[in-house]
Amino acid sequence: MLAIVCPPSVLAFTAGSAPMPGLCRRCGTPPAMQLDGPPAMQPPEGTMSARAARIALPVAAVGVTSVTAAGLFSTFAGSGAPAMDSGEEAEARNRLAVVDPRAEATMARYYPGALGSQTIDRLVADTLGRKGYSPGNTILATSTCSDEVNYKSKEMIDLMATRWGENFALGGLAGVPFVGKAGFGAYSHHTPDGGKMLILFAPHVGVGYDGVVGKIQRVSQAEVSTACGAAVGAFKALMAEKAELQAKGIVMGTPPESQINDYFSAQISFIKLKLRTKLEKVMSAPDAQTFVAYQMYTLTREALAESLFGALPGFFDFGGEVAVVGGIQVNRADGGDRFMPLMFQTLTKGGVTTDLYAETFGPPPDLTKALGGTIPQAELFDFRLAQK
Length: 388
Ligand SMILES: [Zn+2]
Hints:
By secondary structure, this protein is an alpha/beta fold. Helix content is 39%, strand content 15%. The chain has 15 helices and ten strands. The chain has helices spanning 8-17, 31-35, 50-56, 66-74, 86-96, 101-110, 117-130, 156-164, 180-188, 229-247, 266-275, 288-310, 357-361, 368-371, 377-381, and strands at residues 115-116, 138-144, 167-169, 195-202, 204-207, 215-217, 224-226, 319-332, 338-348, 353-355. Strands 1, 2, 3, 4, 5, 8, 9 and 10 form an eight-stranded mixed sheet that branches. α7 packs parallel to α8 (156-164) and α9 packs across α12 (288-310). The protein is globular. The protein starts with 7 loop residues before the first helix and ends in a 7-residue tail after the last helix. Bound molecules: zinc ion (ZN).
């Protein structure tokens, strides 16, 4: 019995590149055998939560498609990925045909509440539409890693840029907004007169077809590579440095920021400098790469707040309000990316902060199982976009 139905893209690639032409590089079987295998996804048991039901169905559709919604969503229980307009439903069904249960189990444990790209794009737009945001009066900016895996067609950045019209790129390696205060100032000064700003920030992490966190199978590459390469690379370098110092009986401290002295490695040096202060409990976490991904989120959030508030007062010269969506972009080899929302707030020129998370995504998911208490729930969800 085969558990995996590899997608056509993998099979096609295999024909030209693998040692055994015609065989899938993942499971070693020919396409015909795979097609005879069982469904790729075993629908988890459980009923649709209130959160899932609310997201799954636009109010107007309740009562008309609820049976379909419940049936479709039951297969996503745990990963929290309902999608009920026609495009999202098609996306979900396609996904079910190619994902591996091991990857879905990883998602359910470490990234509960993660949603598909189309769903995130729609939910954010619906909420902001009710608040007066429109493509005509809003300018989008995104702070995501330079890695091309984040810019695939029909995934979140592409969808949002298409919806909102333009996209000011704030990010550098790992999604940290390396444009800094000057970049935030420049972005804000491109806002339509009297309009609004929308910022999405997200570090990213890969979840391989086999459920391994921090890995991704890229198109046309036989080898599995890391994602996020910058975050994983910084983490590995820091752990190696710590082990080396420990062998000499030295406790690793925090170097002065002046250590960033190589202008041509400035971004990775910054990431290492900041991440090293957040790794104390990594060995106690259920999954080290997941711990790093969530810490990269807090690191990126801090950098964003420093840059945004550092760009005041000119930041609101043209627009009176900014909306900020934060989370973790989960890159998947098969079935489309997922996004784990962790923050959605607006801030006005007058300093009024409004939390839109629950209104948009429902109550925050419990991450106790994902992080084993190494990062408190409050540290991830109680952040408020306000000047210190
Ligand atoms: Zn990256």
